[in-house]
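Task: complex structure prediction.
Instruction: return C-alpha cells for all chains below.
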Amino acid sequence: MTSFVLLACIMASSGGLIFGYDIGISGGVTSMDSFLEKFFPSVYAQQQADSSASQYCKFDSELLTLFTSSLYVAALLSSFAASRVTRVSGRKLSMLIGGMTFLAGSAINGAAVNVFMLILGRVLLGIGIGFANQSVPVYLSEMAPAKMRGTLNIGFQLMITVGIFAANLINYGTASIKGGWGWRVSLGLAAVPAIIMSVGALVLPDTPNSLLERGFAEEAKKMLQKIRGTDDIQEEYDDLIAASEEAKTVKSPWSNILQNKYRPQLIMAILIPFFQQLTGINVIMFYAPVLFKTIGFGGEASLASAVITGIVNVFATFVSIATVDRLGRRALFLQGGAQMLISQVVVGTLIGLKFGTSGEATELSKGYASIIVLFICVYVAAFAWSWGPLGWLVPSEIFPLEIRSAGQSITVSVNMFFTFIIAQVFLLALCHMKFGLFYFFGGWVVIMTAFIYFFLPETKNVPIEEIILVWKQHWFWGKFIADEDIHVGEHAFKNTSA
Ligand code: BGC
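Output:
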C-alpha cells in the first residue's frame, strides 16, 4: 500500500464524521430544556408535568422523534439522486455535494428561529448524509488494494464512531451553557466535520474504477499505477477494463439490478442494512441517556454512561480494523452476533428482574446498575467490530461495477429507513414491550447470525472486480450466475485451473 492511498482514504473517511456527528447530537439537543421550550413547548410542558409511575413509559413524545427522524427520510431519498451523480460524474463529486449541503444545513440549524428552519436544516443535513454514505464506502473499497480493503474501508465506520463520541462530549459541554443557547452551538458545530469533508473531497483523486467507467482510460491506468505504487498493474487493470466494458452495456442500472444474475447482491444490499438496524444499536446511540435515566440513573450519571458507551464504540472499532482482512468478514459477523445475543439476554433479564412488567420505580443499587452498564458496553463493543463496520463494508464490495452505485443507494436507503423506524418507535416499544424489547432485538440477532452463516460468502482479500467469482462458487447463490455472466478474472480462472 502507498502512503498516497492511505492519505486519500483517511480524507475520504471523514465523510463518516458528518453521519456520526448527527447520530450523536440529536438525542442530547432534544433533551435540552431551552431547546424544547423554544421549539416544542407542548412537549416541554408535558415532560414537566409528567411524573408517570411506570419506568418504561417515561419519555414518550412522537413529535420530537419526528424531528429527529426527518433527517433519515431526506437521506433515504437523496441517496437515489446521489447514485446517478456517483456513477456519471464520479465518487468525488458526490462527496463534495454531500459536504456542502451538510454545511448549509448546519448553518441554518445553528441559526434557527422557528421550527421551519429547524426542519429545513435537518432536511439539508439528511441530503448531505445521503450523498456521503452513498459515495464514501464505495470510494474506499475501490481505492484500497484487495488485501487491505477491509481495514481501509472501516475508516468510514471509525469516523462515524468518532463523530458520535465528539457530539456526546459537545452536548455535555453545551448543555450547561447559561442563557439557553447551548443547543445552537451543538447544532452549528456540525459545520466543522462538513468543512473537513468538503475540503477533502476537493483535493481527493477519483478512483481508477470510476475514471474508467466514465471513459478516461489513460487517467485510470495512471491512477492505478500511482495508488498501487508500481507499474505492474496489468492484471488488475484488465479486470477494470472488463468491468467497465460490462458497465457500458448497461443503460439503466436500476432495471438491471433486478435481473436474476444480480439476485445475490440485491438481497444482500437489502438485508445487510436491515439486519444492522435490527441489532437495536441505535436504541443505545440515540437514547443512551434516556435509557440510563429509565433504569434509574440520575441526570449526570446517565450522561456519563453515555460517554462510556461512546468510548467503547470508538475503541472496539479498532479490533475490526486490525482483523477484518485476516480473520475475514464472516468470523467477525459470527463472533459479534454471539456476543451481542448474550449481552442482550443479560441486559433484558437484569432490567426485567428489577422492574418486572409493571415498571414500578425502584432504587437500583450502584452495583446492579454498573452491571447493566457493563453488559451494554459488551454489546456495543460486539456491534462495533461486527455489524457496525461490516454493515457498510460488505455492501460496498460485493457489487459488480455496472450496478455498484445503484446497489449502494439501496443499502443507504434501507439503512436510513430502518434507522428512522427504530428512532420513531423505540420509546413507544419500550413502553409496551418493556424489558422484552431486549429479547426482541436478541431474536433478530439470532436470525441474522444464522443468515450470515449460511448465505454470506467470504470476500476478504478478493479483488473487488473479481468478487463475482466468489458468488459463483457459493453453494446457494452460484446457481443464479451463469458462466457467460463472468467476464473478469481471466487470470484468476487460469490460476485455479492450473
Ligand atoms: C450504523 C449507525 C450506528 C453506528 C453506531 C453505524 O454503522 O449505520 O446506525 O448508529 O454505526 O456506531
